[in-house]
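Researcher: Here's a chain I'd like modeled. Treat it as a single chain, no partners, no ligands.
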Amino acid sequence: MAHLDATMRLFDPDIRPQEMRAKQQRARSAWFRQGECLRRIHDELRNAAQPLTTRDLAERIMRAKAVPASDDRSRELIQKTVLGSLSRAKETIARVEVAGVVSWRLV
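Model: Modeled as a single isolated chain. C-alpha coordinates:
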Protein backbone atom coordinates (compact mmCIF):
# COMPACT_ATOMS: atom_id res chain seq x y z
CA MET A 1 0.00 0.00 0.00
CA ALA A 2 3.01 2.31 0.31
CA HIS A 3 3.04 2.87 -3.46
CA LEU A 4 -0.61 3.96 -3.31
CA ASP A 5 0.18 6.47 -0.55
CA ALA A 6 3.05 7.86 -2.61
CA THR A 7 0.82 8.17 -5.68
CA MET A 8 -1.87 10.03 -3.74
CA ARG A 9 0.76 12.39 -2.30
CA LEU A 10 1.78 13.35 -5.87
CA PHE A 11 -1.66 14.91 -6.30
CA ASP A 12 -2.14 16.17 -2.73
CA PRO A 13 0.94 16.43 -0.49
CA ASP A 14 -1.25 17.01 2.59
CA ILE A 15 -3.41 13.91 2.13
CA ARG A 16 -3.75 11.51 5.07
CA PRO A 17 -4.74 8.09 3.69
CA GLN A 18 -4.95 6.55 7.18
CA GLU A 19 -7.86 8.91 7.95
CA MET A 20 -9.83 7.98 4.83
CA ARG A 21 -12.82 5.68 5.25
CA ALA A 22 -13.64 2.87 2.85
CA LYS A 23 -16.58 3.41 0.52
CA GLN A 24 -19.67 1.72 1.93
CA GLN A 25 -21.24 -0.85 -0.38
CA ARG A 26 -25.00 -0.91 -0.87
CA ALA A 27 -26.74 -4.10 0.10
CA ARG A 28 -27.92 -6.09 -2.92
CA SER A 29 -31.62 -6.62 -3.42
CA ALA A 30 -33.05 -10.12 -3.20
CA TRP A 31 -35.41 -9.42 -6.12
CA PHE A 32 -33.14 -7.80 -8.71
CA ARG A 33 -29.86 -8.59 -10.42
CA GLN A 34 -27.43 -5.69 -10.82
CA GLY A 35 -29.04 -2.99 -12.99
CA GLU A 36 -32.29 -4.94 -13.45
CA CYS A 37 -34.47 -2.64 -11.34
CA LEU A 38 -33.50 0.46 -13.33
CA ARG A 39 -34.02 -1.38 -16.65
CA ARG A 40 -37.51 -2.42 -15.54
CA ILE A 41 -38.28 1.16 -14.43
CA HIS A 42 -37.23 2.47 -17.85
CA ASP A 43 -39.41 -0.17 -19.56
CA GLU A 44 -42.46 0.75 -17.46
CA LEU A 45 -42.00 4.51 -17.98
CA ARG A 46 -41.46 4.02 -21.71
CA ASN A 47 -44.78 2.12 -21.97
CA ALA A 48 -46.75 4.50 -19.74
CA ALA A 49 -49.04 7.14 -21.24
CA GLN A 50 -48.39 9.51 -18.32
CA PRO A 51 -45.88 9.87 -15.45
CA LEU A 52 -46.05 7.12 -12.81
CA THR A 53 -45.78 7.32 -9.03
CA THR A 54 -43.18 5.29 -7.17
CA ARG A 55 -45.96 3.04 -5.87
CA ASP A 56 -47.36 2.49 -9.39
CA LEU A 57 -43.88 1.58 -10.64
CA ALA A 58 -43.32 -0.82 -7.74
CA GLU A 59 -46.69 -2.53 -8.30
CA ARG A 60 -46.10 -2.90 -12.06
CA ILE A 61 -42.64 -4.35 -11.46
CA MET A 62 -44.03 -6.71 -8.80
CA ARG A 63 -46.61 -7.99 -11.33
CA ALA A 64 -43.90 -8.48 -13.95
CA LYS A 65 -41.76 -10.44 -11.45
CA ALA A 66 -44.77 -12.40 -10.11
CA VAL A 67 -44.38 -11.08 -6.55
CA PRO A 68 -47.76 -11.34 -4.78
CA ALA A 69 -49.44 -7.92 -4.46
CA SER A 70 -50.83 -8.97 -1.07
CA ASP A 71 -47.31 -9.14 0.40
CA ASP A 72 -47.11 -5.70 2.05
CA ARG A 73 -43.55 -6.17 3.34
CA SER A 74 -42.23 -7.11 -0.11
CA ARG A 75 -44.08 -4.19 -1.70
CA GLU A 76 -42.54 -1.80 0.84
CA LEU A 77 -39.01 -3.11 0.23
CA ILE A 78 -39.40 -3.16 -3.56
CA GLN A 79 -40.80 0.37 -3.43
CA LYS A 80 -37.71 1.50 -1.48
CA THR A 81 -35.46 -0.20 -4.03
CA VAL A 82 -37.35 1.49 -6.89
CA LEU A 83 -37.09 4.89 -5.17
CA GLY A 84 -33.35 4.43 -4.69
CA SER A 85 -32.92 3.59 -8.37
CA LEU A 86 -35.04 6.59 -9.37
CA SER A 87 -32.95 8.89 -7.18
CA ARG A 88 -29.72 7.73 -8.84
CA ALA A 89 -31.10 8.06 -12.41
CA LYS A 90 -31.23 11.86 -12.55
CA GLU A 91 -29.95 12.01 -16.14
CA THR A 92 -32.62 9.77 -17.63
CA ILE A 93 -35.63 10.07 -15.31
CA ALA A 94 -37.30 13.31 -14.21
CA ARG A 95 -39.30 13.91 -11.04
CA VAL A 96 -42.63 15.63 -11.77
CA GLU A 97 -45.06 16.98 -9.20
CA VAL A 98 -48.73 17.21 -10.18
CA ALA A 99 -51.29 18.38 -7.61
CA GLY A 100 -48.88 17.54 -4.78
CA VAL A 101 -48.24 14.00 -6.02
CA VAL A 102 -44.69 13.07 -7.02
CA SER A 103 -44.46 11.10 -10.25
CA TRP A 104 -41.67 10.09 -12.63
CA ARG A 105 -41.18 10.28 -16.39
CA LEU A 106 -38.38 9.69 -18.85
CA VAL A 107 -36.31 12.75 -19.80
